[in-house]
């Protein structure tokens, strides 16, 4: 997926007690007032909050890569050089399999169908794909349950 230019966005939530929130707010404000390494300290406080989140959904959005980025990445891979995007592809699958729903927008018809297929291959869940246009046909056909709705 990353090779195709998909950028992922993870949507999650965390409920805090009043005490947990007060602790976070105190540490955050203290980090913001720091004279040395302010950015690192603020990031550390925020990162401490980003643990044990309830995963709500994951989106895949197509980004337009700059000219020659895709062939350059392919050349690097062919030369045996590992590229970060490969890691994110596996992370996408891992996260998507934990989500109750995966929403894809601005993806090619092939990418939409690939996402459905990935979910089928990595989970025992049945898939349902809902689309409202001709570019959704391959995704709808790939799903266990495909729903086509009339768009405007």
Question: What's this, in brief?
Answer:
The protein is 47% helix and 19% strand. The chain is an alpha/beta fold and 152 residues long. It is extended and about 55 Å long.
Topology (elements, then pairings):
Blueprint: E1 6-13, H1 18-32, H2 38-49, E2 54-62, H3 69-78, H4 84-98, E3 102-105, H5 109-122, E4 128-131, H6 137-142, E5 145-148
Parallel strand pairs: 2-3, 4-5
Antiparallel strand pairs: 1-2
Helix pairs in contact: 1-2
Keyphrases for this structure?
alpha/beta, 152 residues, 19% strand, three-stranded mixed beta sheet, two-stranded parallel sheet
Total beta strands: 5
Enumerate the spans where pLDDT stays under 50 for 5 or more consecutive residues.
Answer: 82-88
Whole-number mean pLDDT: 79
* Percentage of residues in DSSP E strands: 15-25%
Q: Which strands sit side by side, in order, in the main sheet?
A: 1-2-3
How would you describe this structure to a colleague?
With 152 residues, the protein is α/β, with parallel strands linked by helices. 47% of the residues lie in helices and 19% in strands. It has helices spanning 18-32, 38-49, 69-78, 84-98, 109-122, 137-142; strands spanning 6-13, 54-62, 102-105, 128-131, 145-148. Strands 1-2-3 form a three-stranded mixed sheet, covered by helices on one side. Helix 1 runs antiparallel to helix 2. The radius of gyration is 20 Å and the shape is extended.
């Amino acid at each position: 997926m990353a090779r195709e230019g998909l950028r992922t966005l993870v949507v999650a939530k965390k409920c805090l007690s009043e005490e947990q929130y007060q602790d976070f707010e105190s540490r955050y404000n203290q980090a913001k007032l720091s004279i040395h390494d302010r950015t690192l300290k603020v990031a550390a406080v925020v990162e401490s909050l980003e643990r044990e989140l309830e995963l709500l959904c994951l989106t895949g959005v197509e980004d337009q890569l700059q000219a020659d980025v895709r062939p350059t990445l392919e050349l690097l891979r062919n030369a045996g050089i590992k590229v970060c995007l490969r890691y994110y592809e596996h992370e996408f699958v891992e996260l998507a399999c934990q989500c109750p729903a995966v929403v894809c927008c601005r993806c090619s018809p092939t990418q939409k169908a690939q996402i459905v297929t990935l979910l089928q291959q990595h989970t025992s869940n049945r898939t349902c794909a809902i689309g409202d246009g001709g570019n959704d046909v391959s995704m709808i056909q790939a799903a266990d349950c495909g729903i086509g709705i009339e768009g405007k």
